[in-house]
Amino acid sequence: MPSEVSKRFLHVVGARPNFMKAAPVLAALAGRAEQTLVHTGQHYDAAMSEVFFDQLGLPAPDVDLEVGSGSHAAQTAQIMTRFEPVLLERRPDFVVVYGDVNSTVAATLVASKLLVRVAHVEAGLRSRDRKMPEEINRLVTDTLADLLFTPSTDGDDNLRAEGVAADKIHFVGNVMIDTLVRLLPAAAALGTRARLGLPRPYVLVTLHRPSNVDDPATLAPLLAALGRAAASHDVVFPVHPRTRGRLAESGVAVPERIRLLEPLGYLEFLDLQREAAAVITDSGGIQEESTFLGVPCITVRENTERPVTVTLGTNVLVGRDPLRMLAELERALEGGTGGRATGAVRPPLWDGRAAERIAPILLERA
Ligand code: UD1
Q: Catalytic annotation on 208?
């Protein structure tokens, strides 16, 4: 019987939403296994990567593949080509992948073909919208993964319906909430709102999905509607590099009243989210965080792979319709609940302990 310490896990992260998911799993396995952290370099700006390593207490990556940006095919291929020799050299018991970004699917493809087992954290989520690149990444990753850790029971249902063997599926809860629970006090101590001179109530906006920002015919009306909202409420918008790029290329004007910021660190963003009267977003993770925080969330998408945020939480989908977005914003602001949506419930096992449930399963299966 090999000792626990001889077990070896290789974690792959690459893009901003991976970092807060990997941090609790690495911490839960610390001292109980040999761990390697590979950063693909999908995200590389300090504001998209380094600040998260610092704030989350992630160890420095053992390997940085430095792939950078590119088309989906180019980026995925680069990650695969550069990851293969690393994996051949290290031969871990499991490759652990997170979420649904290109780094997730690329590492999974490489590992599967080298017969190295894959564990997928945040498995089973489905938007059923194959125009979304992340949905393709989720489908491929879950088809190939050997161990699937789901954040909510809809994930288990989806996987079973796709024919995944029941003994591979483990409902463990939401690792992103593990990080939120751990760091909420530190975030709340920052006083980010006051430092920005933001009065209450304010509305926090993020938009970066290709389906919202890549086509000026979609982006311009959304920004115009946000400009109308900003006539009566403060609207603050940390801008993702993709969105910044599209704005520059297209010349779409941002209404002056909207307060644009550079991308924020994890703690600063969480602090602003915590105190917001409402959040308008197309992010996956923010739908979850706002549900946990009880802050009304208006999601500018036709669908979500995180349905519990709608059925139990604070989330409402408004498509890409600026008028519906404004109507739901009014409703949230009129709620008069000081930024806390009434009747919202935290989904089961979103309790800050998901990684504690993942670690023993990984150790046992390795
Ligand atoms: C990626 C993920 C998306 C996730 C998002 C969170 C995929 C398919 N998409 O989208 O699921 O919600 O991250 O942030 O994996 N750029 C920079 N600096 C960086 C990184 C990117 O300037 O550090 C710019 C580049 O112009 C790049 C563009 O942003 O071309 C898009 O980056 P990319 O990694 O392709 O996808 P995201 O839109 O960031």
A: yes
pTM of the model: 0.97
What pLDDT, on the 0 to 100 scale, is given for residue 180? Answer: 98
The full DSSP string for 62-104 is SEE-------HHHHHHHHHHHHHHHHHHH--SEEEEETTSHHH
* pLDDT surpasses 80 at 229: yes
Q: What is the CATH number of domain 4-173+350-365?
A: 3.40.50.2000
> What's the 3 CA to ligand 1 centre distance in angstroms?
40
Question: How do the domains of the chain map onto residue ranges?
Answer: 4-173+350-365, 184-335
When pLDDT is cut at 50, 70 and 90, the band that residue 340 belongs to is low
Ligand 1 centroid, distance to 81 Cα (angstroms):
19
| β-pair type (34-39, 8-13) | parallel
What are the counts of helices (DSSP H) followed by strands (DSSP E) for the chain? 16, 13
184-335: CATH topology: Rossmann fold (3.40.50)
CA dist., res. 27 & res. 163, Å (int): 32
* Tens of pLDDT, residues 131-149: 999 999 999 999 999 999 9
